[in-house]
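Entry:
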Amino acid sequence: MTNATLPRRPRVYLAGFDVFRLDARAFGERLREACAEYGFEGVYPLDAEVPADLDGSRAAAWIYRSNIDAIRGADIVMANVDDFRGPGEPDSGTAFEIGFAAALGKEVWAYTTDAGALIERVPSRAIPQGRECAKGFLVEDFGLPKNLMIACSARIVNGDARACLAAMAEGREVWQG
């Protein structure tokens, strides 16, 4: 069989706040390697280099367009939805990417090492209407690990990126709630 007849590996856009890690590029390389082990081609947001002559809002706009193009070119989006800057809340950019991928009809998988349902993890107090967070808003209680818009648009795996890749390769969900 020649390379021309080999089936193309599914392209997986690797969404998540991992791009903010101090070792973000090395971490992205490890994610791409893990993708290859499971039969996928990983596409990491930092694969594309921001042109040196751009800064500030122009660099941000370039990154946005680059990531949008990468999602459009992917077959699957795999997102790290671990709590980011607060309990129960993934990175807002990742949430946008999940929504964008869902709107395009892409298959979306997500993984989290945060155990338990959202209502159990967000600090809150009981009030007659349900549970109220410190900012005075109700905490949704559907027994899901994340906000319903993420939990209903993605297959959520309880575990790390490798657990998600394994579930993707087998086409199964593993979150037990």
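The mean pLDDT is 93.
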